[in-house]
Structures are given as C-alpha cells and as structure tokens.
Amino acid sequence: MYEGIKKAKSGDVITDRSKEMERWVEHYSELFTTENTVSEEAINNISALPALDELDTESTIAELEKTINSLIDVMASRNKYATFSNGIKVPLLGLGTWKSKPGEVKNAIKTAIDAGYRHFDGAFSYENEKEVGNAYHEKITDGTVKREDLFITTKLWATYHRPERVEYGLRLSLKALQLDYVDLYLIHTPMGIQYKGDDVLFPNGENGEFLADDICPTETWKAMEKLVEKGLTKSIGVSNFTIRQMEDILKIAKVPIATNQVENHPCLDQKEMTDFCKSKNILITSYSPFGSPDRPWASDKDPNLLEDPVVKEIAGGKGCTPGQLLIAYHLCQGFLCIPKSVTPSRIQQNFQLEKPRPLSLLDVRRRQIYGLPRTISR
Ligand SMILES: NC(=O)c1ccc[n+]([C@@H]2O[C@H](COP(=O)([O-])OP(=O)(O)OC[C@H]3O[C@@H](n4cnc5c(N)ncnc54)[C@H](OP(=O)(O)O)[C@@H]3O)[C@@H](O)[C@H]2O)c1
C-alpha cells in the first residue's frame, strides 16, 4: 500500500485519509531516526498548516505530504524556529522560569544554554530577573553565546498597565536583566492592578480587597507599540487574553500581536483560542505544558499529567519520557512551548526531542490524549 503512496503524484486524490496518514507517519519515522533532515521553510510554514481534521477526503497527496513533512520537521526541531507575523524568528522550545528561585535559576539557565536552549521565558513578577540576568551575562561574557543568539521574553506586570508606566515597567526588567532590549515583551495579564510601588505586586485595600485598575488593554497596547519603535523590544504580544480582548487589540493595533501565551496542555486544550490565533497569524505559546505540578495552589487530588497512565503509555510506545511526549504534543501542533525546570537532568532531557519517534496529530487524537480528565485546580 505504501508503495502506492510513494508513486502517487502531486494532485492525486486519496480517499482513506487516516490510513494513508498513518503509513506516512511510519515511513517518516524511519527517516527521522536515521537522518535529521529539516527544512527551514517547513518549520516556518507550520502555523499555516491545516489541522488534520480540517483536511477533507478530497485532500491531495501534496497537501498531506506538506503536513507530514512539517510535523516531522517540528519533531526534529532542536533549536528550530517558528516565525512571528512580523518576520522575526523564535525558537520553538524555550525554558520557563516561573517559581525558579534565586539560588536555582542562574544554574538552570546556564545549564539550559549549555544544553542548546536559546529561548527563555521570564517575567517581572517572577521576582528572579536579577539572577536570570546574571546567567545571561555570564554566558555572554564567557563567549558561550552572543546576545543575538538568545531569544529573551519578559512581561509587563499588571501594576504598570497605565500608558505612562509601560516603558518604566520594561526598563525595570531590562535593568535587572542587564540587557538593552528584549526579544519579546508581553502584557502578562489583561487586567490592570493599582500601582502601589515597584515591590508591591498584589496590593490590597484597607479591607483586604483586590485593587483592580480600570485601564483598557488597548491603551496599554498603544504604549507597548512605542517600545518597539524605541528598540526596547523586537516584538510584542499578550498573555492570558481572551479572544474578545484580542479582537479589541486587533482593531487598533499598528504592530501585530506576535503571540498569545496561554495555559495549554492535554487537560486544558485551547482549541477555540488556538483556532482563532491561527486565523489571525498569531502564534500560540503554551505555558504550563506539564500542568504546572509545582504551582502554589496545586492540590493532592489533582491529576498529575507527567504521571498520567495514558501519557505514560503513549510515551512508552514512542520511546520517550512523559515530559518529552508532552512537549511534542505542542510542537507537532505548531505551538511554542516553554517547560520550566531547575533540575539539570530534566532541563537536558526536555530538550532532547530527537529521541521520541514522531508524534503526529493523528496519534494525539487516536490515543485519546484529549480525553484526559480536565480537573486540574485553577
Ligand atoms: N504567562 C503566564 O501567566 C504564565 C503562567 C504560568 C507559566 N508561565 C510560563 O510557563 C513556564 C512553564 O510553566 P510552569 O512553570 O507553570 O509549569 P510546567 O513547565 O508545566 O511544570 C514545571 C514542573 O515540572 C517539573 N518538571 C520539569 N521537567 C520535568 C521532567 N522531565 N520530569 C518530571 N518533572 C519535570 C518541574 O520540576 P523541577 O523544576 O523541580 O525540575 C516543575 O515542578 C513557567 O515557568 C513560565 O515561564 C507563564
């Protein structure tokens, strides 16, 4: 049967899509394990790919070949890049730094750079940017990397949403990070909080009440655009925004939204959001890809994605660890992915994506990874 596919010409029509796709995955799996042939163009085109369930039975061999090639390329994507709509490249896989404590985070970043990571996700509110900056500085000074080799993200905290405070908020981060610019600056959350000082992230009122600040995110966005003009960030984006909030920004944006960084994993698949972003040429960045087992409000009763029997079973079949499988789950769907770890062996292991045999969207759906319980506490 496979011979038939090989002989098929571009433009031929196939009728049994799922069977053919499986055979193609198997075939490319073999290629993948012997030679890592990655087409940069395919990686760049990943966000434009149709999802499998969008391909109808009239889909042509050419369409399927393009899809499969790109999936395989993404699986081989150590240090491969996606491209924002402004043309700027971003490594698909990055290291997260939320909850990475001072005393741990410097070593984590240096280990990651040595392992090959070039994309790092941080935020002012993680309260570790000084040490994160020390790690970049040391690796640049000792010649391991150049600044331009690194893709560095940080985020505007909610107390800096007023337009007159936006540049100040970024400059606080730049100073701590010892950088002249970041590669990506995100509005961390759509809701503003009243400013009560740089060291007060969550101010409370006299009666302990939450002090929201009533600023429309579109006003904050206009001030974010000025940071691009000034060269303080190369790209800008949002995080934790709803579709409606993004639509509001799109109505006034002169600089494109590069990405929406959202929680995304098999227990919280963001299909509506990911479809929307794809239609607007906005990349998805998946945060908490392992379900954030170390989140401060985790409950013992919550399922642990890394320990989930379905995840473990599929990972076993693919010759990879649950963590590698959960990362592949994002990359094969064209999402940027930023798992966090401060453990050197895990940092290295999470980056070794050439090990798992390719995971396709077909696997994801057939093995019902989407059927995992959605009961993680939020
Ligand atoms: N924009 C936002 O609002 C937002 C919100 C949440 C997260 N984020 C970003 O996304 C990043 C990742 O999300 P997250 O930190 O919530 O959680 P996560 O990446 O889903 O999970 C991190 C946890 O998984 C553990 N871990 C990592 N690799 C592992 C492996 N191979 N095997 C077993 N355990 C492993 C880590 O342990 P060790 O560290 O002890 O190794 C840590 O406990 C954050 O760090 C942050 O940069 C952004």
Automatic annotation (TrEMBL):
PROSITE patterns: ALDOKETO_REDUCTASE_1, ALDOKETO_REDUCTASE_2, ALDOKETO_REDUCTASE_3. Pfam families: Aldo_ket_red (PF00248). Residues 93-355 form the NADP-dependent oxidoreductase domain. Keywords: NADP, Oxidoreductase. GO terms for molecular function: oxidoreductase activity. Belongs to the aldo/keto reductase family. This is Alcohol dehydrogenase [NADP(+)] A. It comes from Holothuria leucospilota (Black long sea cucumber). The lineage of its organism: Eukaryota, Metazoa, Echinodermata, Eleutherozoa, Echinozoa.
